Amino acid sequence: MNTIEAIAARRSIRRFKDIPIPEETMEAILQAGIQAPSGKNRQPWRFVVVKGEKRSDMVRIMRDGLDNAKREGRATGSAEWTVKVMEHAPVTVFVFDPDGVRPWLPHAVDQMFNELVDIQSVGAAIQNMLLAAQDLGIGSLWICDVLSAYEELCSWLGEKGEMVAAVSFGYPDESPEPRPRKPMGETVRVL
């Protein structure tokens, strides 16, 4: 599959088969993330892989975080549904910027610019992993709902940096149709 085909074929998968992903396949996906371009070649990513029996701990921590968010009056949006998806995915990779600061803490201007560049770089790493997974026949879901249980997950994972997202991986048990896209005329302006 070429890159253009992988981009066109990739879908967000929310139902996975109960089949483990071979270690070498997951390593190839992670290696694709590591090969992403990054500002000043800083490579500002750290991947924490959750699989096997640790998945049940991850789901429990995520649900505890959502319960805490609700008690505090914070909206959790689609996170309730997302935690069910994570529960059934054979692998979930949490993606961190190890040099990032919690988003709600004060940032110096230089730190804000560095983090903006780092987040762009981390996004490229995530996209590389999504496309590599597609090429290898693995479904994926880029998850931002983990931010609803931010502190709980960071504490459980033992990470001090900025959690950017998570990505769940597994063999797809669905074939969603493409989602509508805005036409180029609405999203592109040529000077």
Give short descriptive properties of this protein.
191 residues, alpha+beta, NADH Oxidase, four-stranded antiparallel β-sheet, globular
Would you kindly provide a brief summary of this structure?
About 45% of the residues lie in helices and about 15% in strands.
Task: Describe the protein in words.
The protein has 191 residues and is α+β, with helices and mostly antiparallel strands. The chain has one domain: NADH Oxidase, CATH 3.40.109.10. The chain has seven helices and four strands, in the order ααβααβαβαβα. The protein has a four-stranded antiparallel β-sheet with strand order 1-2-4-3, sandwiched between helices. Helix 3 packs antiparallel against helix 6. It is globular and about 45 Å long. The model has no long low-confidence stretch (mean pLDDT 95).
Number of domains: 1
In CATH's first tier, which class applies?
Alpha Beta
The percent of residues in helical segments reads: 40-55%
State the assembly state of the protein chains. single chain
- Overall form: globular
Give the class from helix and strand content and strand pairing: alpha+beta
Taken in chain order, the helices and strands follow as: HHEHHEHEHEH
CATH architecture: 3-Layer(aba) Sandwich
Side by side, the strands of the main sheet go 1-2-4-3
Describe the main β-sheet briefly.
Answer: 4 strands, antiparallel
Low-confidence stretches: none
| CATH topology description | NADH Oxidase
Q: Whole-number average pLDDT?
A: 95
C-alpha-based Rg, rounded = 17 Å
- Assign the CATH superfamily: NADH Oxidase
Query: What is the beta-strand fraction?
Result: 5-15%
Q: In DSSP terms, counting alpha (H) and pi (I) runs of 4 or more, how many helices?
A: 7
In total, how many beta strands?
A: 4
Distance between the termini: 34 Å
